[in-house]
Q: What sequence folds into this?
C-alpha cells in the first residue's frame, strides 16, 4: 500500500488525537502530583512555574504516609500475584482438558465460568463480609485471595480455552510419528505454542486483580491486607483538615507506572492474546 | 458427534474414552469447584440471609421474616431511583463506547505500520490503569478547588469558575460516565478489532471492485460479518457497566442522586451493617444481571460459545 503525503498527514492527526485521548487523564494526575499544597488550587493544568515539587512523593515514600502507602502496595502486589498464579495454574489444566479431551460437562464448565464472570461482585461481598468475620478471614490476605479467584479464574479459563483451541494438537502426534516420546512431543510441539497464551492470560488476570476495589474496601479494615485502590480511597493525608489531593495523585502515579511498563513491554502479546482467541480457526 | 478419524476398535475405544473422561474431570474439576465455591455458595448464603431481619449491631434480634426485605426494597423510591441511574449509566456508556471503540478499532486496523504499535500501546494504557486512579484523575480535573476544567472551559455557556460538578446529578453523572467510558473503551475496541480481523479481506476487496463506497462496505460487508463480536462486546460491557461502583464511590460516594445499585448494596450491608436488607439488595442486583444476560442471549441471539472458537 503506498501512502501519499495527504494520507500521512491524516494519520498524524488521527494518531495525535488518539494519543491525547488515551493519555490525557494520566498526564493530568501526573501534573497534579507535582503541585505543592498551596499550588493545588491554582486552576491550571500544570504546577505554577518554579513551584513544582516532589513533596507529595516524599510524603508517601519516606514521610508520614509511608507506612500507609508502602504497606498497601505490598499487599496489592502479594495478593494479586498469588491470586493470579493460582488462577492461571488451575485455568491452564482446565483449558487443556476442554481443548484437548473429550468428556461430558465441558459446556457446563464454560457456562459456569461465564456466569461467574458476570456475577456482581457486590452480591458476593455481603455474605463474605459476615462469614469472614465469623471465621477470622476478615482483613487477611487469604480473605482477599479467595474472592479474587472469582475475578481471575473465569477470564483465565475463557482466554486459555479459546487460545488452546487454536493450537494444532495434531502436531503432537506428528512429532510422535517422527520418533519423539509423548513428553518430548508435548514439550517441543505444544508448550511453545501454548506458553504465550498462558503468559498473556497471567498479565490480564493480574490487571484485573490489581484493579479490584469492592473486595478491597469491604473485606479489609486495617493495613493488614488493604490493597492500594482501597487505601487510596480511605487516605486522609498528613492533615485531617486538608484534602490529600497531592499525595493521592503521587500514589496513583506510582501504582500506574508498573502497569504502564507491563503494557509497553507486552502490548503485542496482550493484544494478540485478547484477539487470537476470536480470530484464527 | 465428532469424527476425528481414529481407527480404534470398539471396546478399546470405550476404555480410552472412559480414561479420557476421568482425566478431563481431574484436570478441570479443581477450577470448576473453586468457581462454585467462590460464587454459588455466597449467593445462596445471601439469599438465605435476605430472608431475615438481621443487623450486625443487634445480632440477637435476628428474626425470620420471609420476603419482607424484598417488599421493603421494592416499595422504596430509593431503589427505583438507583436502578434508573444505573440503567441510564449503562445505556449511555455502552452506546458511546460502541461508537468510540469501533472508531478506535478501525484506526488500529488501518493505521500505517509505523504508528500501529504506538497506537495500540496508547489505547491499552486506560485498560491497564486502576479504575480508582482513573476516577481520581477525572475527579481532580473537574473538582471545584483543584480542577482546571472550569477555567479552561469558562467560555462554554453553563460552565464558570463556580460550577461544582459534583453537587448535582446532572453534571456529576456525565463526568462519572466519561471516566467509565475512557477506562473501558479499550476493552470493547480490542474485541471489535478481533472482529474486524475476522472479516475476510476478499469480501471487502470484492465490494471495493464493485464500486461500493466506504459507508456501503461498512454497512453491507464489514458490520454484518462482525455481528457476533459486536454482540458479545456489548453484552459484556453492559453487564460490567451495570455493576459500576468505583467511579461513583470516589467521585460522589452516591451523593446528590448519583447512587447506583452496587453502592446501595454496599451502603446497606457494609456501612450500615444491615446484613438482611443488604443481602436482599445483592440478590436483586444479581437477578437484574441474570435478566440482562437472559434477554441478550434469547432476544439478540448472542452465541457466546460460538465466538470463542466453538468449532472444532
A:
Amino acid at each position: 500500500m503506498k501512502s501519499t503525503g495527504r494520507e500521512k498527514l491524516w494519520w498524524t492527526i488521527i494518531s495525535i488525537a488518539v494519543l491525547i485521548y488515551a493519555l490525557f487523564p494520566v498526564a493530568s494526575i501526573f501534573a497534579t502530583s507535582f503541585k505543592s499544597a498551596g499550588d493545588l488550587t491554582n486552576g491550571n493544568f500544570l504546577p505554577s512555574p518554579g513551584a513544582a515539587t516532589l513533596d507529595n512523593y516524599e510524603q508517601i515514600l519516606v514521610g508520614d504516609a509511608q507506612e500507609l502507602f508502602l504497606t498497601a502496595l505490598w499487599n496489592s502486589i502479594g495478593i494479586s500475584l498469588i491470586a493470579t498464579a493460582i488462577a492461571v495454574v488451575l485455568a491452564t489444566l482446565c483449558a487443556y482438558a476442554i481443548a484437548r479431551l473429550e468428556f461430558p460437562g465441558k459446556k457446563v464448565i464454560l457456562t459456569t465460568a461465564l456466569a461467574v464472570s458476570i456475577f456482581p461482585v457486590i452480591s458476593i461481598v455481603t455474605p463474605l463480609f459476615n462469614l469472614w468475620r465469623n471465621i477470622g478471614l476478615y482483613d487477611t490476605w487469604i480473605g482477599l485471595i479467595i474472592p479474587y479467584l472469582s475475578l481471575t479464574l473465569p477470564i483465565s479459563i475463557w482466554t486459555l480455552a479459546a487460545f488452546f483451541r487454536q493450537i494444532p494438537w495434531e502436531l503432537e502426534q506428528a512429532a510422535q510419528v517422527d520418533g519423539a516420546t509423548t513428553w518430548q512431543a508435548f514439550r517441543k510441539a505444544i508448550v511453545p505454542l501454548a506458553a504465550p497464551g498462558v503468559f498473556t492470560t497471567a498479565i490480564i488476570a493480574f490487571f484485573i486483580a490489581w484493579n479490584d476495589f469492592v473486595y478491597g474496601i469491604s473485606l479489609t479494615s486495617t493495613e493488614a491486607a488493604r490493597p492500594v485502590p482501597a487505601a487510596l480511597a480511605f487516605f486522609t493525608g498528613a492533615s485531617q483538615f486538608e484534602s490529600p489531593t497531592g499525595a493521592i495523585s503521587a500514589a496513583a502515579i506510582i501504582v500506574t507506572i508498573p502497569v504502564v511498563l507491563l503494557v509497553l513491554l507486552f502490548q503485542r502479546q496482550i493484544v494478540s492474546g485478547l484477539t487470537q482467541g476470536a480470530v484464527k480457526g | 458427534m465428532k469424527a476425528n478419524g481414529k481407527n480404534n476398535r470398539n471396546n478399546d475405544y470405550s476404555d480410552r474414552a472412559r480414561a479420557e473422561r476421568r482425566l478431563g474431570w481431574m484436570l478441570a474439576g479443581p477450577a470448576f469447584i473453586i468457581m462454585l465455591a467462590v460464587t454459588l455458595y455466597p449467593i445462596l448464603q445471601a439469599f438465605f440471609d435476605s430472608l431475615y431481619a438481621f443487623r450486625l449491631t443487634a445480632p440477637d434480634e435476628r428474626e425470620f421474616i420471609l420476603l419482607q426485605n424484598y417488599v421493603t426494597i421494592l416499595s422504596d423510591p430509593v431503589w427505583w431511583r438507583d436502578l434508573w441511574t444505573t440503567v441510564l449509566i449503562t445505556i449511555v456508556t455502552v452506546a458511546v463506547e460502541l461508537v468510540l471503540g469501533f472508531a478506535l478499532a478501525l484506526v488500529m486496523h488501518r493505521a500505517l505500520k509505523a504508528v500501529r504499535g504506538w497506537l495500540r500501546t496508547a489505547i491499552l494504557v486506560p485498560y491497564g490503569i486502576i479504575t480508582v486512579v482513573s476516577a481520581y484523575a477525572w475527579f481532580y480535573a473537574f473538582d471545584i478547588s483543584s480542577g482546571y476544567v472550569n477555567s479552561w472551559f469558562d467560555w462554554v455557556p453553563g460552565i464558570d469558575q463556580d460550577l461544582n460538578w459534583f453537587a448535582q446529578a446532572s453534571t456529576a453523572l456525565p463526568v462519572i460516565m466519561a471516566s467509565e467510558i475512557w477506562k473501558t473503551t479499550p476493552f470493547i475496541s480490542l474485541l471489535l478489532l478481533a472482529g474486524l480481523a475476522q472479516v475476510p479481506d476478499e469480501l471487502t476487496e470484492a465490494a471495493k471492485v464493485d464500486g461500493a463506497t466506504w459507508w456501503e462496505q461498512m454497512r453491507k460487508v464489514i458490520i454484518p460479518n462482525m455481528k457476533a463480536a459486536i454482540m458479545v462486546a456489548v453484552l459484556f460491557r453492559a453487564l460490567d457497566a451495570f455493576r459500576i461502583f468505583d467511579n461513583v464511590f470516589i467521585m460522589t460516594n452516591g451523593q446528590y442522586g448519583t447512587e447506583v445499585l452496587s453502592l446501595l448494596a454496599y451502603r446497606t450491608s457494609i456501612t450500615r451493617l444491615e446484613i438482611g436488607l443488604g443481602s436482599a439488595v445483592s440478590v436483586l442486583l444479581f437477578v437484574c444481571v441474570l435478566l440482562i444476560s437472559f434477554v441478550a442471549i434469547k432476544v439478540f441471539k448472542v452465541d457466546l460459545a460460538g465466538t470463542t472458537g466453538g468449532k472444532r
Observations:
- Chain B touches chain A through 100 residues (CB under 8 Å).
- Chain B has 14 helices and two strands.
- The first helix of chain B runs from residue 10 to 49.
- The mean pLDDT of chain B is 84.
